[in-house]
Amino acid sequence: MSGHLAVVGLGPGAARFLTVEAENALAGADALYGYGPYLDRLPTRTGQSRHASDNREEKARAAAALRHAADGARVAIVSGGDPGVFAMAAAVCEEIEAGPESWRALDLTMIPGITAMLAVAARIGAPLGHDFCALSLSDNLKPWALIERRLDAAAGAGFVIALYNPVSRARPWQLARAFARLCRHLPPSTPVIFGRAIGRPDERVSVVTLTAADTTPADMATLVIVGTRETRIVARPGRPPLVYTPRAAAEVST
Amino acid sequence: MSGHLAVVGLGPGAARFLTVEAENALAGADALYGYGPYLDRLPTRTGQSRHASDNREEKARAAAALRHAADGARVAIVSGGDPGVFAMAAAVCEEIEAGPESWRALDLTMIPGITAMLAVAARIGAPLGHDFCALSLSDNLKPWALIERRLDAAAGAGFVIALYNPVSRARPWQLARAFARLCRHLPPSTPVIFGRAIGRPDERVSVVTLTAADTTPADMATLVIVGTRETRIVARPGRPPLVYTPRAAAEVST
User: For residue B206, is pLDDT > 90?
Assistant: First the structure.
């Protein structure tokens, strides 16, 4: 068995977020699998095949890449951000567990990348400066009641909350419902950050308050960070404000 | 004002985790500030000064770097992992808010990096494959009661939990107390991952169950990931097991 599968995190999109390890894995692959727009960001290389698929086809993509690697090829699946954060790594593990015994013997490498919440946070200051959580708002794979329960738990205990997959064509109402739920726990002035396409030409980052947040446009590529009651906004002359969550939490917040 | 301050994430230590953006910022700096062992990982460059400090001196280090940048230099503060995750970015923001008005006018860039939980997760599979949180076990800057409340909230709502700063010479008992607390919410068989120094010669990654976890050695450089009741361990012939949390959560877990 000489095949190899790498699951490679591309970061938020700009080439400057790629790690050395990710660049090497992409350069050395016989075949690339991934969501079409992610593959389109990468330079074409002679002798390297490309297998684009839709963003709802993680399972089929993982299985196809595993089959290809089991045939002896060096295969890379590309993933936006970090493959382990709401991306391809778990889908690949699921297929390995359910698949033929030979897939367990494959040489498998997960290559971490800059996940969206780190890129958005860096762009605006340090909003994740204290304890935080990452929560997908997609109710495709879990019930909405569980999402609300997690929002309650996280906001009630004072975690900063990074919301992945806030909205899609098929899920238009979830984000507003989440903000309404968070208003039960957090003051109206709580800072909320919307960030998308960090490092790309269509980058957009904005800061609003929780009460104004539900009217702010978000799309599938947006990452939302909801602060805590301790999160601070620092005005700067001639520059966008800094938003950060202090390292110290003096008392139990409710 | 021509000064510039970059807060640069080095990732977990190995050069292959550096991003292109981080490399460029380090190469272009007049002065580097940071915890001594982090600076020691970087190549020396002619004309670039180094200012090492202890790992408990974030505040003084941030202020010194800001003063230096305000004098017109290109300054980089280095940070292990990602600067926005329990590292230097929040300390810098705190100093800017408290400091002279001129510091707010500085050109400031936060450069994200691979934070420890992403590196450890990638090494073992996809344990953060579903909703998760990151929690510092240090009670230097927050009361222990708040930490326990957050452990309860996170485990009770089914978040995977990444524990940063699990132990230090001055904080020997916190990790065992945290495991005991988590046992109230999670089955004894819940997978627990210990990872340290990913990509370095002294790398160590192990998987145990929650009941066996409190006897497993951890140190200041260790990152601990506690799974959920859904986290799976997949045995592999001749390879370490894969640990992952499935993307789907079928019902509200308690």
Answer: yes
Question: Percentage helix, strand, coil, to 5, in chain A?
Answer: 30, 30, 40
Instruction: Tell me the C-alpha distance between B240 and B234, whole Å.
Output: 9
B-interface mutation test, from A1, A18, A41, A131, most B Cβ less than 10 A away: A131
* Residues of chain A neighbouring B142 (CB-CB closer than 8 A): 130, 248-250
pLDDT confidence tier of residue B251, bands split at 50, 70 and 90:
low
Could B118 and A85 be called an inter-chain contact, meaning their C-beta atoms sit closer than 8 Å?
yes
Contact between chains at B84 and A121 (C-beta distance less than 8 A): yes
CATH topology identical between A4-114 and A117-244: no
Please report, for chain A, the start and end positions of each structural domain, with discontinuous segments joined by +. Answer: 4-114, 117-244
Residues forming a β-bridge with A195? A205, A223
B150:A141 CB<8 A: no
Q: What is the pLDDT of residues A141-150, one digit of tens each?
A: 999 999 999 9
Chain A hits for B155, CB-CB cut-off 8 Å, are: none
Number of CB atoms found within 10 A of residue A155's CB:
26
- ipTM above threshold 0.95: yes
CATH topology for the A117-244 domain = 3.30.950
Beta pairing class for A204-209 and A222-226 = unpaired
Reported as a single tens digit per residue, the pLDDT across A1-10 is 578 999 999 9
Please tell me what DSSP assigns to residue B35. E
Inspect the interface and report whether the beta carbons of A252 and B85 lie closer than 8 Å.
no
Model confidence at B14, in pLDDT bands (50, 70, 90)? Answer: confident
The distance of A210 to chain B (nearest Cα, Å) reads 21
Indicate yes or no: CB of A97 within 8 angstroms of CB of B234.
yes
What fold, for A4-114? Answer: Cobalt-precorrin-4 Transmethylase; domain 1 (3.40.1010)
- The predicted model scores a pTM of 0.97
Q: Are B119 and B11 in contact (CB under 8 A)?
A: yes
Contact list in A for residue B158 (CB cut-off 8 A) is 146, 150
